[in-house]
């Protein structure tokens, strides 16, 4: 397939929160990913460029950036798909503090993950028999639907509720909480229930599905959060939840 | 300055949420006025009648058309969200949101034709 | 937003959905030949059914709008959740007072 042109004009965010975009020329190649472009700039133009990646195959979730205005996983995003007219603008993820250049501080994202009790709480010891889980039980199907999250933070960056409400736990953490809710082996649901039903929890979600639209794994946090809303509302009505 | 590109904003469902919020706000601001006007019905309704004749102006009628749209779109958009929140997931929310807005526009248009 | 506010806001929304439908129908009916006070009052005056309908409607909308405005203020204004809550409570009380006053005017006075 002939390329539209042999050169890309790439604007990269340079500096911290108060940095600015700077433009570089990068040769265009076949099957080039956005991460390839960023790597080219660092290897051939400016070695001080900071960015983050590890696996390059869409597993680790560390390479997310804002590409032409949208949060994306850069290692699996082809330039041909996003660069209309040979221009690319690549910035750090939104809704997270910028450390430098394209690297954000993911700490708030992971802290909220913990806060939503997104951690498996075992209900058995190694001396117990291995739990028998029916793969086709409704709970397991619900858990499976959200389990493939790679913690990339794309949905978190796409969610305006995160931007407007600093306490909002965000789509990824709540999605994770929902998978654990549906995990028959997990024993942490009462603490989890309180965490996701508090102010800033699942009830702050406005169901605009920006999270789902941007999730590179096509997960649907909106649906998971709706599940949490049902579960917590029911618990509240039964008086099991103090709010 | 980092450009705050439109990005996730501007998608159909984001706009739907925005319409829902802004219509709700507008209705909340309108309601006290609405209630106040209806209280003019005290003492036989002469004052209410006086006010209603004032509302016969085209501009006021036009804003009533707007209110009918806001109320309908808030109702239909709200029902859509209630269904998402309380029932099993269904795809096609974009289409449903557009349907809600279109139906509201039609209802408002029928009202417009009626009052003019 | 927490579970309690959520439940109240969505419950009032669900209650109001049919009410709004009826309300829109009444709007269309009332404007069939132009609004008039006599026409409105002939429907509502001394009508227990309309009194109940509009009272429930006013109560639900006061709660619903108050919680909604609280969320908007918390997200879009510099006010914190507490202050937003106070302002929204004031709005809810205002709506309820004006609303019940209007119902009284239409049905009784
Ligand atoms: S649906 Fe909920 S979690 Fe997803 S973007 Fe909207 S507010 Fe955020
Ligand atoms: S839900 Fe999707 S977008 Fe969000 S962190 Fe997980 S994989 Fe990334
Ligand atoms: S580098 Fe691992 S997901 Fe992109």
Report on the structure:
The complex is a heterotrimer of chains A (243), B (116) and C (109). Chain A is α+β, with helices and mostly antiparallel strands and 243 residues long. Chain A folds into two domains: 99 residues, Beta-grasp domain (Ubiquitin-like (UB roll), Roll); 131 residues, Fumarate Reductase Iron-sulfur Protein, Chain B, domain 2, CATH 1.10.1060.10. In chain A, 35% of the residues lie in helices and 14% in strands. Chain A has ten helices and seven strands. Chain A has a five-stranded mixed beta sheet with strand order 2-1-5-3-4. Chain A has a two-stranded antiparallel sheet with strand order 6-7. The radius of gyration of chain A is 20 Å and the shape is elongated. Chain B is mainly α. Chain B has a single domain, classed as Up-down Bundle (3 helical TM bundles of succinate and fumarate reductases). In chain B, 76% of the residues lie in helices and 0% in strands. Chain B has four helices and no strands. Chain B is elongated, with a radius of gyration of 18 Å. The model of chain B has no long low-confidence stretch (mean pLDDT 92). By secondary structure, chain C is an all-alpha fold. Chain C has a single domain, classed as 3 helical TM bundles of succinate and fumarate reductases (Up-down Bundle). Chain C is built from four helices and no strands. In chain C, helix 1 packs across helix 3 and helix 3 runs antiparallel to helix 4. The mean pLDDT of chain C is 94. Classes of the chains: A alpha+beta (243), B mainly alpha (116), C mainly alpha (109). The structure holds iron/sulfur cluster (2 copies) and FE2/S2 (inorganic) cluster. The site of one iron/sulfur cluster (SF4) has 13 residues of chain A, from helix 9 and helix 10.
Keyword list:
heterotrimer, A: 243 residues, alpha+beta, Ubiquitin-like (UB roll), Fumarate Reductase Iron-sulfur Protein, Chain B, domain 2, two-stranded antiparallel sheet, elongated, C: 109 residues, mainly alpha, 3 helical TM bundles of succinate and fumarate reductases, 4 helices, 84% helix, 0% strand, binds iron/sulfur cluster, binds FE2/S2 (inorganic) cluster
């Amino acid at each position: 397939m002939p390329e539209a042109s042999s050169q890309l004009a790439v604007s990269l965010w340079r500096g911290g929160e108060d940095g600015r975009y700077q433009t570089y020329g990068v040769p265009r190649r076949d099957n080039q990913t956005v991460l390839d472009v960023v790597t080219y700039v660092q290897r051939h133009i400016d070695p001080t460029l900071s960015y983050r990646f590890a696996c390059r195959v869409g597993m680790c979730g560390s390479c997310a950036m804002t590409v032409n205005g949208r949060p994306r996983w850069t290692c699996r995003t082809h330039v041909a798909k996003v660069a209309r007219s040979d221009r690319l603008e690549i910035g750090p993820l939104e809704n997270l503090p910028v450390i430098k250049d394209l690297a954000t501080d993911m700490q708030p994202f992971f802290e909220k993950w913990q806060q939503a009790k997104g951690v498996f709480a075992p209900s058995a010891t190694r001396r117990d028999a291995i739990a028998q889980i029916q793969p086709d039980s409704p709970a397991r199907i619900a858990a499976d639907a959200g389990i493939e999250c790679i913690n990339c933070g794309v949905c978190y960056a796409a969610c305006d509720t995160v931007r407007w409400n600093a306490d909002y736990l965000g789509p990824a953490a709540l999605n994770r909480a929902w998978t654990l809710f549906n995990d028959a082996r997990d024993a942490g649901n009462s603490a989890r229930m309180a965490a996701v039903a508090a102010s800033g929890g699942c009830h702050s979600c406005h169901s605009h599905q920006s999270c789902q639209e941007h999730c590179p794994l096509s997960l649907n946090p909106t649906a998971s959060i709706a599940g949490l809303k049902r579960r917590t509302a029911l618990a509240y009505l039964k008086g099991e939840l103090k709010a | 300055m980092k450009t705050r590109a439109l990005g996730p904003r501007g998608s159909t469902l984001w706009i739907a949420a925005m319409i829902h919020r802004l219509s709700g706000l507008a209705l909340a601001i309108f309601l006290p006025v609405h209630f106040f006007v209806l209280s003019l019905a005290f003492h036989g309704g002469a004052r209410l009648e006086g006010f209603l004749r004032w509302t016969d102006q085209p501009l006021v009628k036009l804003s009533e058309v707007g209110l009918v749209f806001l109320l309908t779109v808030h109702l239909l958009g709200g029902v859509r969200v209630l269904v998402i929140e309380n029932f099993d997931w269904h795809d096609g929310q974009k289409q449903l949101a557009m349907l809600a807005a279109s139906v509201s526009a039609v209802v408002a248009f029928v009202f417009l034709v009626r009052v003019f | 937003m927490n579970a309690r506010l959520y439940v109240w806001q969505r419950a009032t929304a669900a209650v109001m959905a049919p009410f709004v439908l009826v309300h829109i129908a009444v709007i269309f009916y009332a404007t069939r030949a132009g609004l008039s006070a006599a026409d409105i009052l002939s429907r509502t005056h001394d009508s227990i059914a309309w009194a109940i309908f509009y009272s429930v409607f006013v109560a639900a909308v006061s709660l619903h709008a108050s919680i909604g405005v609280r969320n908007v203020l918390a997200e879009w204004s510099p006010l914190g959740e507490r202050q937003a809550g106070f302002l929204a409570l004031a709005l809810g009380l205002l709506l309820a007072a004006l609303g019940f006053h209007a119902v009284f005017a239409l049905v009784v006075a």
